[in-house]
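User: My collaborator sent over this chain with a note saying "see what the structure looks like." That's all I know about it. Can you take a look?
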Amino acid sequence: MSPPVSAPESAAIGRGGLAAPPVAYGAAALGNLYQALGEEEWPEIVPAAWASGVRYFDVAPHYGLGLAERRLGESLRALPRDEVVVSTKVGRLLVPQDAAGRTDIDNLFDVPADHRRVRDYSRDGVLRSIEESLRRLGLDRIDIALVHDPDGHEREALEGAFPALSELRDQGVIRSFGAGMNQSAMPTRFVRETDGDVMMIAGRWTLLDQSAADDLLPAAHERDVTVLAAAVFNSGILATDAPGQGSTFDYGPADRSVVDRAQAIARVAHRHGRTLPELAAQYPLTHPAVGAVVMGGASAEQVARNSGLVARPVGDDVWGELRERGLISQEVGPARQAVGLEGHPVR
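Assistant: Without extra context I'll predict from the sequence alone. Here is the result:
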């Protein structure tokens, strides 16, 4: 593996004393998301992220029926634990079953279906989930625990999962907690009704979907809750510098209007000598509540490329033109001084 590099300047994540640079690695690919990774491929991913300055790694039992946690844990053993932030999730317990030759590809992971997921947001379910994640990761603590996709289970999460995570934080088993969801309304209620201090929002604070600006972001900023922006490419359309027909948006075919808007943003980027993926990675950081963007990658090259997207700061002239053209939301308040992976300020 590449030799460790000095960690770039970090920003606070939550209220538990954690800090990390503004790019985190989302480790779903380690669980064979969409396709299996070869034994010569996956061990290179975390070292590449580390060498690129990444210090925060996010995972979940859901990813590959525990495979992503096991692979991440194996990779982290070569790194200094005190310099790494690790988050995982609760809400889906893994129950063994006979795979009978089946794979989990219906759930997007190319692994044997030797476990099934059971939704459980109760106190006992959370305690069991954390214990099993610690075992798979090979760690003695988890930095951040997120309640995973409790859509349809809000009351159970409020009455079971969140109080249990608060207990675990008091005991030092975790440092911070919150939720990870693909919507902004419910995490906003969690900000107001719990003492969680980290919320991960996927696909709702991006160049193409700024709906979190209406509820989650102002609530989080008011309560000193850190927001982690995931799925900043909206499942693919913003990951390429030339989006076109056939692009995916929110895991389905992108409508013509969405493609047109992405192309319009790309044209503004090009006039300023920037790329659409650079803008997609940096735009979420313009809000003061956002502590990091969470990006994936199924190879060392992809991870290094994604990490580098925040190295050159996008200037206010770019954001200003996009606002004037109605392509992004209006000013959302004073942006925090985010720090790029090469130590540059990112506005």
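A starting point for your reply to your collaborator: The radius of gyration is 19 Å.
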